[in-house]
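Q: Two folds, back to back.
A: First:
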Amino acid sequence: MSTDNPPTLAITDVSIIDCVGDETAPRNGWVTVTDGVIDAVGEGRMPSDLTVGKVIEGRGGYLIPGLINLHTHLFGDAGPVWPHRFSRPEELAVIAAKNAMETVKSGVTSVRDLGGPFRTALTVKNLIDEGAIIGPRITASGDVITITGGHGHWMGYEADTPDEVRKGVRTQIKAGAGVIKLMASGGAGTAETTTSSPGLPFDCLQAAVEEAASFGVPTAAHALDRNGVENAIRAGVTTLEHGVSCDRELVELMRKNGVALVSTLAVNTILGEAPPGCCVAPWLVERVRPLAADRYNSFRLAMESDVVIGAGMDSGVPLLRHDDFASELEAMESLGQPPTEVLASATRVAASLLGHSSTVGTIEARKLADLVLLERNPLDGIEAVRSIRHVIAGGALIV
């Protein structure tokens, strides 16, 4: 530590869960922050002669890295209908800015936004990066890439050949996209398609992955049927979103090809369980509910086969609130993933899938100071991530 530039913030006498490795047992210690970056992580008592701008007493609390939600749609207000058909760009930007604030206050300090009209998330990302508004770090896809009339066409770049897809990838990267979202099948949330409708074929998915990789940008593929899932895995996408209809053969192919799974379990545990007469359009619930068994089975098979699993909720779709990422983590635990692995999926693993392991995802010196102070130990039960005492994003005290 430099005495010429003393720490601006310290969290002392706290149980630190740094998520650096598989051994995540809490250890008592302290953390100092300078200019938004973790300056030092120490054990025991902080040196008494250390001058610090602000001290947060962490006694009885548990300090974890800021959580990372790998699947969100900031334009979505979790209401009964996505506000895409009647909103102007400026209206969606206001909605997304509000959702960004709710997100970071809930302990989620980084998100991967996987699509919205008018590239809304890129607008909000720029405002956050400039310090104009408060929110999480955003990695956004811009427009999703889909076939003409395919799932998400209303927020997408429509492409039907490998060359058209390559141009679509370049167009999103030019606009600032840090991930490319690909529609490998139909979906539940687009009225004109079904979950078994066709999506981008293999040659288009392969072209997208190759083009994105040439720019160093990861890819995420939505897939809800076996054909779409297999095509996405064979194409070598970074993450498979939803992953419904995975069997042992496909899960083994995922492991072999290094494709990670983001199951978005809350789509079924919350939206799929919406009671009759709920405000959500009946056709949407009727499409989602039958996916539950396959979605849960895919998740379990992935765990058993040591497939990398990242945490993402599909936040913003009807009933999936941006401040309720804990529900996704609780669903992962309920299906057999130990709390230590769930927490890793939402921190260290998620950071790796974003390509941001050098800056976020663990509590280490020289990483960005994205931290959450909890009242309870999340390793005893992941529901403890709801027990927020403080949220720190980039060294700034948010809550």
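A: Second:
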Amino acid sequence: MTACGDAGRYFAALEYLDLNGTQVSDLKPLRVLTKLTQLYLSRTQVSDLEPLRVLTKLTQLYLSRTQVSDLEPLRVLTKLTQLYLSRTQVSDLEPLRGLANLQLLELFDTQVSDDQVVALMKALPKLEIHR
């Protein structure tokens, strides 16, 4: 086995990754990290969440202070329990309505309307929203 092969196998087994405050903008390389349960991307240049669609084991996702606006790719992340979206460009919470395991949502300083919050709380009555 080569050193690269060993490294690839090691990284593929990661369950926790903290990239907070880094220059990360492209999430495509993370697609192979399918065992991730916690991903920290706050204070990065991230805007496109599409590559996260395959990370179905994620339970905690930190996206505060990013350029994220579209939550559609998160619709399939049904194991999410905590989602941090403060100081993002997010305004539409509809993609989160089916995330029955979501327990905590942080939305400080976003463009999310009161109507969006009310609709999400009706869909997910156990959800705690901080804004």
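Q: And?
A: The two ends are 50 Å apart (CA to CA).
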